Amino acid sequence: MGGAKGRAAAAVSFLSLGTPNTFFAKARFVGGRRRAAHSNALAAESALKGGCWSSTSTRESGTKKSTRAVATTTTTTTTTRKSPPPPPPPSKVDVAIVGGGLVGVAFARALRTNARTKHLSVAVLDGNPRAFAIKQEKKGNDEQHQHHHQHPRAAPKARVSALTPESIEFLERECGGVWTQIEKTNLGNEFDAVQAWDAIGEGYVRFEAKEAHRNRLGVVVENDATRNALCDGLIEEFEEEEEEEEEEKGGQESAKKRKRNLFLLPGTSVVGTETTESSPFRVVKFKSSLGNSGDKESDEEVKTISARLVVGADGPNSAMKRFAGVRSFGYDYNQKAVCGTVELDGPTKTAFQRFLKNGPIALLPIGNGKTKTSDDDSQFPIYANIVWSTTPKEAERITALSDDDFASEVNDAIHGGREYNYQLRKQQVRDSKIINGGFAKSFSMFVAESFAKDVFSFAMDTLTKNKKMENKVREILESTLNENEFEPPPNIIATAKGSERGAFPLKLKIAGARTHRRMLLIGDAAHVVHPLGGQGVNLGFKDVAAGIDAIENAVSVGDDIGSENTLRNYKNARFLEMSAMVIGLDALQKIFGPTLSSIEPFTQLRSIGMRAVNMFAPVRETITKFAADGGVLRKK
Questions:
Q1: Cα angle value 608/609/614 (rounded, 5°)
Q2: DSSP letters for 182-235
Q3: Is 597 helix (H, G, I), strand (E, B) or coil?
Q4: Shortest CA distance to 5 belongs to which of 635, 636, 622, 634?
Q5: 409 and 495 in contact (C-beta within 8 Å)?
Q6: Gap between the terminal Cα atoms of the chain
Q7: Mean pLDDT within 267-296
Q8: Which pLDDT score is estimated for 197?
């Protein structure tokens, strides 16, 4: 079983290599739809001082306007007032989610979608003041499509995720149709093959969706597009609850019956947490930069929120993890990943990854984002995302290149041009050794290769003398030895105009415990892995699915959602699979990392291994199926 898990972990690394926000129309903000008139100046001032982003609407009453006009003689002035402050944060909730990134909002959305957990009150805290500001297309779809047809979209942002089919199904089924919403934006590009090859040892392996009877192996999506789609439903529900509260204020009795179940709290920084073994709550202490009073001093005061269960989704440097006393272990890879966006000379549905001497470079197709109604592709550049793992010094140099030089460098790294043509350099080194007295060693290698060929020829001659055995061997070979052909990657013709470029450090960081007294950790707060397999977000969605499972089970049997039993169910869920994935990705980083890549005999062995996998169809099929069925979803 351990071997299967190891193969599974290695498999996924090959299958997922690792926006501008084009949700159009009016920006809507967490404060809700306030019924007050605003001038642009005071609205901006309110956004800065008042501590919330409220959608504003200007309503002019003819009677009031004429009255004000008379009062000011010949000058017509517009009377404005600030929008009311946002509702105060609750003192107690069932679930408090600290962190409003991809994984955190997915947890909230799944809780609000699930019929058995929808009644639970949920608060989402995030340090970004604009964490829940979003632009969404509400009206004029035809006009927007026409605009999109006439004007190509802006270059995609550098941070993307290669979502597996199971992550996609999770977003669609467990998060209320989020994937359908993402698809409508045309901000994702599916790929049906993954090709990885060794720049040093010449071996390669190619996995194709058809081998696993799948239509695709994954979809490359901008992180912002996924998060915005997840946030959209939360913000809609938040605003609807706010409007209903205002409408119910006309009748005190009906107002009492209404209970808010969702709280979105941007601009909050966690400063502490505490609980006891016997306490039915965990207290989260925080400060808000968007206070209710508008007074800076009072806004800096420490506030608290008590929750039956706290979910730490606040990233690799998790404040919840630190304040709860949960330690992490791991180490720095002494590498950085350069991210950027480039333009290709043609479309592709293959995700490429080439292993260089300092680390892998991945080329992930993002497509062109054109609408389904557009016929002319010429005006739509074909984009791809670059994730290039290398040394910190090289990462700084590559990031600082001009757009033209960056595109040229990436093209060389993918195609083996100039300094990235390791085979040419190896041949030059061999020639130099022969000239400088290494002839005897080279001649010995030649004799060994000739002997191996003679042995192989003798074995084949023996088989041909026995027709029955020959037919059996031929049948076996035809069904198993079916090598996938190498697909030349497209050329990089330019750096995407206006695109972002940056580098981030790579490390392995695992929380010593995934749970701790009424708290569970998900996403990067629980585990940070190398982007070699592009599994960060997919692993995070696994955590979300396991967490929702544990909560749903607790609700079903009437158990406390923050009890040790609930936490144990979460901790044990897919423990072996998660451990195998983390260990597998770390092992692959070392196998294809700079240290072992400098040892020529090892690079040859690793290349042989890649060729063997690519040659045996049953092995490829098993790997492809596991990666495509990544286990993100609950099995029902």
A1: 95
A2: HHHHT-EEEESEEEEEETTT--EEEEEGGGGT-S-SEEEEEHHHHHHHHHHHHH
A3: helix
A4: 622
A5: no
A6: 23
A7: 83
A8: 93
DSSP-derived secondary structure for 69-93: HHHTTT-------PPPPPPPPPSEE
Q: What φ, ψ does residue 497 adopt, rounded to 5°?
A: -65, 130
523 torsion bin: left (phi>0), alpha (psi -120 to 50), beta (else):
left
Nearest to 4 by CA among 619, 421, 545, 464: 619
Q: Answer yes or no: are the C-beta atoms of 1 and 23 closer than 8 Å.
A: no
Q: Are strands 134-135 and 27-28 parallel, antiparallel or unpaired?
A: antiparallel
Query: And the tokens for 369?
Result: 């984002």
Closest CA to 35 of 50, 53, 55, 51: 55
The two beta strands, 303-312 and 519-521, are parallel
Tokens linked to 331: 């180490």
| 309: nearest Cα among 609, 98, 475 | 98
In whole angstroms, what is the distance from residue 381 CA to residue 634 CA? 39
Q: Which residue is associated with the tokens 């351990």?
A: 2
Task: Indicate if the pLDDT at residue 304 is higher than 60.
Answer: yes
Q: Nearest-CA neighbor of 419 among 398, 400, 399?
A: 398
SS3 at position 321: helix
533: part of which helix (H) or strand (E)? none
DSSP string of 335-356, one letter each residue:
EEEEEEEEEESS---EEEEEEE
Name which residue leads in pLDDT, 178 or 627.
178
Which DSSP string do the residues of 416-462 spell out, in sequence order? T-GGG-HHHHHHHHHHHHIIIIIHHHHHHHHHHHHHHHHHHHHHHHH
Q: Which residue has the tokens 């069904």?
A: 479
Closest CA to 170 of 538, 595, 593, 554: 538
pLDDT at residue 393 in the model: 95
Closest alpha carbon to 562 in 573, 551, 578? 551
